[in-house]
Amino acid sequence: MKQHFDNLGLPSTANQADVKRAYRKLAMRLHPDRNPDPRAAGLFAELQNSYETLLAFLDPTRPKIAPTVATAKKQKTKEERVAQAKKRYEDQKLREKKANDSYFAQLTKGNKWKIYRVGTVLCTLLSFVLLLDLVLPETQEKDSITGITMKESGGLSTAYVHPIYLENTGKLQIEKGFHSDFQNYPDVYVIKTPIFHLVKEIVHPVEDELKSYTLDWTIFSQIYWVILFFLLPFGIFFYWEKSPRFTFLYHFSLYLIFPLAILFLSQENRWLHLISLGFL
Q1: Which among 242, 206, 198 has a CA at the least distance from the CA of 222?
Q2: Cα 111 to Cα 104, 189, 230, 231, distances in angstroms
Q3: In the chain, pLDDT over 70 holds for what percent of residues?
Q4: Could you tell me which CATH class the domain 2-103 is placed in?
Q5: Is the full-model pTM beyond 0.85?
Q6: Residue partners of 202: CB distance under 8 A and separation at least 6
Q7: Which residues pair with 162 in a beta bridge?
Q8: Per-domain residue ranges for the chain?
Q9: Which of 8, 48, 144, 232 has the fewest CB atoms within 10 Å, i.e. is most exposed?
């Protein structure tokens, strides 16, 4: 019995609570799923055997009499106990694997998987068109300044921005330094992408000079991140594996990326721009 106490690092005076506490601590360190050491399975099985033996030995309902020789012969050998502990561990791993396989089968089959595939196609197409929007010749629309707020705030791409109000385009956040004499020079040119008509920048004619200003807090100002964001489901589709990471990214795409893609297309008639490639 001393060997079992030693396996748990306990003195022979330990009680059941001490045994349970020591077992939990050692099991976290020796469990084969946590410990890459090839000896971990055997050590864990031996630990399991000592734990069960000591719990039975320290059971207060156990008769406090010395076992007879005949009884001792009937007791299982250490090797048999270790073998049984290993078998229980393997059975538990098999049950976990079956449950894991069943769960991932639910993710990659049925209506939810069909929705995921359709969403992946939509987001991939969206990313491709956004890339195309970057290389095709831009368009420009004439607009007029109706107001400027000189109060500055922090931007995403630039250090400071302030609002500017255009008659047709509405409110935009423009980089610091925009010419404030808009009453004498109210006309501007709004530069947009050809397909989705995303606002890229503003060109302001002042006397004989054309000044270009970068915009912030717009989709175009973060266009590369937006493209990567919508490409994520495509990567996950081919990354498929039975892991918590895949599960998280799968649900991240299903419940966040796909709804945001639909929201993106529903705003400012972008779905119509996509179908007509910018002509409507």
Answers
A1: 198
A2: 14, 47, 21, 22
A3: 91
A4: mainly alpha
A5: no
A6: 164, 172, 174, 178, 188, 189, 190, 191, 212, 213, 215
A7: 174
A8: 2-103, 106-131+224-276, 137-221
A9: 144
